[in-house]
Amino acid sequence: MRDLRTFTLSGYDKGRGIVTQALWFCVMNTLFMAWFCPARLRVALLRAFGARIGEGVLVRHRVRVLWPWKLTVGDHTWIGEGAWLLNLEPVTIGSHVCVSQEALLCTGSHDHRTTDFRYRNAPIRVEDGAWIAARATVLAGVTVGRHAVVSAGTVLNRDLPELTLHTADGTRALKEPAPHPAAKVMKAVKERAR
Questions:
Q1: 132: Cβ–Cβ under 8 A, 6 or more apart, which residues?
Q2: Among 58, 134, 142, 150, which is disulfide-ready with 100 (CB 3.0 to 4.6 Å)?
């Protein structure tokens, strides 16, 4: 029989002291999540609290990040309104990734086989070009491959290979994304300039 009175934080490291944790919670709940906070300021706040954030990252309002110091985000990535990065363990998000509205990346879990219901946490990795669609959930220990797509409202509990679509009905292969027509023109202009 489960005995939740015996649960402890044994083996779990929050990564910063109680003062830093409290300060982050104050900043997150008063300024960071607010609609009036500019996206550039959200990125600056994450960096100030230890997150490693690339260039051109867009973080919308109502985004929640449990521990910024356990977050790494590549270049030109979007994190949509209401997304929740529940990162008890590290979350690594690549470049050109879209984490859509109200998506959940949850590195925390519990071991249901033990009476004390101890933590069974694991990091999450989202590789370059992936898309975590609206209200999708990615669970602890999962890697979402390059240009993979986790469909809206689905739950992903195992690794998703690159160029794979995950839906409620299963998975299927995707083709490599085609470059935008303007990209070809820009490439030709750059080559002529040489």
A1: 97, 98, 99, 100, 103, 105, 126, 138, 144, 150
A2: 134
